[in-house]
Design brief:
The chain has 272 residues and is α/β, with parallel strands linked by helices. It folds into 2 domains: 3-102 and 240-261, NIF3 (NGG1p interacting factor 3)-like (Udp-n-acetylmuramoylalanyl-d-glutamate--2,6- Diaminopimelate Ligase, Chain: A, domain 1, 3-Layer(aba) Sandwich), CATH 3.40.1390.30; 103-237, NIF3 (NGG1p interacting factor 3)-like (Udp-n-acetylmuramoylalanyl-d-glutamate--2,6- Diaminopimelate Ligase, Chain: A, domain 1), CATH 3.40.1390. It contains 9 helices and 11 strands. It has helices spanning 3-13, 47-55, 80-90, 100-104, 109-117, 160-171, 200-205, 235-239, 242-253; strands at 26-29, 39-42, 60-63, 94-97, 120-132, 143-158, 177-178, 186-195, 210-215, 229-232, 259-261. A 6-stranded mixed β-sheet has the order 5-6-8-9-10-7. The protein has a 5-stranded mixed β-sheet with strand order 1-4-3-2-11, with helices on both faces. Strand 3 (60-63), helix 3 (80-90) and strand 4 (94-97) form a beta-alpha-beta unit. The longest helix has 12 residues, at 160-171. The chain is globular and about 55 Å long.
């Protein structure tokens, strides 16, 4: 199977038009006409991740975060991005990123977070959009819906302190940053992986008791006391299960393609 077939499968699940304007999802480095020897699935691409792909015999890296966010004026050893690009080209490794398009897609990153939390009746909140996929091998296209965040319900309500402890355990975080503990049961939870504080007003409008995201600005915590339980679990931690989404898409659409989960923790933030 060719690399392009794997890339097409990923983009049919989360079409590139779903990505945010600032984003650079899609092909980052390399050629797609080669046979795929294996796909290494990760959150970030670094020199060490390219080395891992080579060690595992993978000539395709599927990452959540793009390696190249901004135009490169040259390729040298000046920074890790340029060095990683050089190493990938040198060893014929293709790099593809599925970023905010995968955040937005139905069944994507936010749905995976909700699944890990055990939420039911999950649906989009905030702005929604639709994108048409490229034709498949039969010439068929499909319309994929995307949304800024998702909201879902617990089957049994949780107290705020139990809710925060559940998040620490489920996402293996050292700490959860939260505002004042909510003094009512938490039934409905709004979710936005990564940086989602722009959705706080929409979470309130959606009737959420709690809002879970990866990172927030300091001043955004103010003004939601006893209105919304804010829980910030870390950017990397909120998106760590994205590799499972990649694996499931490829396994279903591209049978026989070997998927390897990256074992490298690329989170640049340490909790001391």
């Amino acid at each position: 199977m060719k690399i392009i077939e794997v890339v097409n499968a990923l983009e049919r699940f989360a079409p590139l038009p779903l990505q945010e304007d600032y984003d650079n999802a899609g092909l980052q480095v390399g050629l797609t006409a080669a046979d795929v020897s294996g796909a290494l699935l990760c959150l970030d691409v670094t020199e060490q991740v390219v080395d891992e792909a080579l060690q595992k015999g993978c000539n395709l890296i599927v990452s959540h975060h793009p390696l190249i966010f901004h135009r490169l004026s040259c390729i040298s050893d000046a920074d890790y991005v340029q060095r990683t690009v050089m190493k990938a080209i040198e060893h014929h490794v293709t790099i593809v990123a599925m970023h905010t398009n995968m955040d937005a897609a139905r069944g994507g990153v936010n749905y995976k977070i909700a699944e890990k939390m055990g939420l039911t009746s999950v649906s989009f909140f905030g702005k929604t959009q639709q994108a048409t996929t490229a034709p498949d091998v039969t010439g068929q296209t499909a319309v994929v819906e995307g949304g800024e965040g998702v909201v879902g319900d617990f089957t049994t309500p949780m107290a705020a302190d139990d809710f925060l402890l559940m998040l620490k355990k489920t996402f293996e975080v050292e700490c959860v940053m939260a505002n004042e503990l909510l003094r009512r049961p938490i039934w409905k939870v709004a979710v936005c992986g990564g940086a989602g504080d722009f959705l706080l007003p929409a979470a309130v409008s959606a009737g959420a008791d709690a809002f879970v995201t990866g990172e927030m600005h300091y001043h955004q915590y103010f003004g939601y006391e006893q209105q919304l339980q804010i829980a910030v679990i870390g950017h990397y931690q909120s998106e760590q299960f994205t590799k499972e989404i990649f694996r499931d898409i490829i396994t279903k659409a591209c049978p026989g393609v070997r998927c390897e989960m990256s074992e490298i923790n690329t989170n640049p933030i340490l909790y001391i």
